[in-house]
UniProtKB/TrEMBL annotation:
Keywords: Golgi apparatus, Membrane, Protein transport, Transmembrane, Transmembrane helix, Transport. The gene is Gosr1. InterPro entries: Golgi_SNAP_su1 (IPR023601). Involved in transport from the ER to the Golgi apparatus as well as in intra-Golgi transport. It belongs to a super-family of proteins called t-SNAREs or soluble NSF (N-ethylmaleimide-sensitive factor) attachment protein receptor. May play a protective role against hydrogen peroxide induced cytotoxicity under glutathione depleted conditions in neuronal cells by regulating the intracellular ROS levels via inhibition of p38 MAPK (MAPK11, MAPK12, MAPK13 and MAPK14). Participates in docking and fusion stage of ER to cis-Golgi transport. The keyword Transport applies. This is Golgi SNAP receptor complex member 1. Its main location: Golgi.
Amino acid sequence: LRKQARQLENELDLKLVSFSKLCTSYSGSRDGRRDRYSSDTTPLLNGSSQDRMFETMAVEIEQLLGKLTGINDKMAEYTNSAGVPSLNAALMHTLQRHRDILQDYTHEFHKTKANFLAIRERENLLGSVRKDIESYKSGSGVNNRRTELFLKEHEHLRNSDRLIEETISIAMATKENMTSQRGMLKSIQSKMNTLANRFPAVNNLIQRINLRKRRDSLILGGVIGICTILLLLYAFH
């Protein structure tokens, strides 16, 4: 049973890899056809051959998953039989490992299948829209060209409106931040004024310190000016 399970698991692994590549190539080919269609050089092609291959591979993988499920059930029956010790850790570990592999393969298959179906459904919807656009283009001529120009201009205007709205939102946020900062500064200033009114001695001391700083600045500026004048006179002398 283990040998059969491993053989089925190897087949499933190869099938799932091919299945995933098919889904990827289906999406890539659809994107390529979409790009060619957008350049108006190549008409839209259908993927009927890929769809048939997808259905065939999905049926094969489902059959392999069913066979592997049956093998796991047989191994579970064997471990639960009367002739097998009930506390055989190796058998239970092997059975659990094969169950985990089956669960992983099943999950991967359903996930890939769901992605493929979603891509196909989306492309079918887009294909019908493209056909309508193509028929409209073939029947409208110059008017269609004008409509395209109007649509492009409308898209540009929408982008401009969006940028303006973003700029306005940024400006409003900046204004709110500045308002909050101004409130904080006013609060700090009021607290400082309150402290200054409560402690006049401290206020006088601060004023004296400021006057001394101004005086020192004036003295320093005068000394620097006199030295500069002396240096200029010495240089020109």
